[in-house]
Amino acid sequence: MTTRLWLWLVPGLLYASFTFWYTNTAGPLSDDEIAMFVQQMERNGGSPQQIANMRRFMEEDTGRQFLMVNIIDMADTPRPVEGVSPDETSDQVMGRYMAHMYPELFKRASHPAFVGNAVFDSMDIVGIEGAEQWTRAALMRYRSRRDILEIALNPVFAGKHDFKMAALDKTIAYPVETQIYLSDPRFLLFLILLAGTALVDLLIFRRPSQ
After folding, report:
1. Cα torsion for 78, 81, 83, 87, to the nearest 10°?
2. What's 11's DSSP letter?
3. Which end of the chain is more exposed for a tag (fewer CB within 10 A), N or C?
């Protein structure tokens, strides 16, 4: 196999491996998986309304990636909760929650896609009260609905969610499936590998001028 072929084959295999891991290849949730997750919610003490909402979320699964839109207003001081000392800030308490979340997210190809702090009050509000002030916004990318359910329903996280609730004054979170997503790492990696490999190819294998 020639050196030039290897030059293009290795980045191609790297990209294919990353794309396979980063993309949900298992398809939408099956009926058996939905039943299993419902049973887990019942064991965790979920209310009938919560279970009904999540069942609908699962039954409408398309198998595609999605972004969880989080609009967050941090509490001035965290609410009392077991395991939190009185001198901790809301950001520190939220950090306790995310310290448990990040490892589970990353191993499922899920991660923050955008995080930013608010720089002014809400400039448009329609049909909602008490939404003038927010602290930050964040977009969390999930590979599939299966992945978010595996994280959320893990009994290990039952007490960790209390840290998140203690750190917040109010929040809105809802999932969206992307139509335009130019910052998708698969797209960015493709451009980087293509440009880098083409540049190396040009430097090594370009024909000398006559």
Report:
1. 30
2. H
3. C
pTM above 0.85, yes or no: yes
Separation CA 142–CA 67 (nearest Å): 6
Is the domain spanning 65-176 CATH 3.30.70.100? The answer is yes
Stated as kind and residue range, the H or E segment containing 105 is: helix 90-106
Q: Where are the domains of the chain?
A: 65-176
In three-state secondary structure terms, 87 is coil
d(CA 127, CA 131): 10
Give pLDDT tens digits for 87-120.
899 999 999 899 889 999 999 999 999 999 999 9
DSSP 128-176: -SS-S--SEEEEEEES-HHHHHHHHT-GGGTTTHHHHHHHEEEEEEEEE
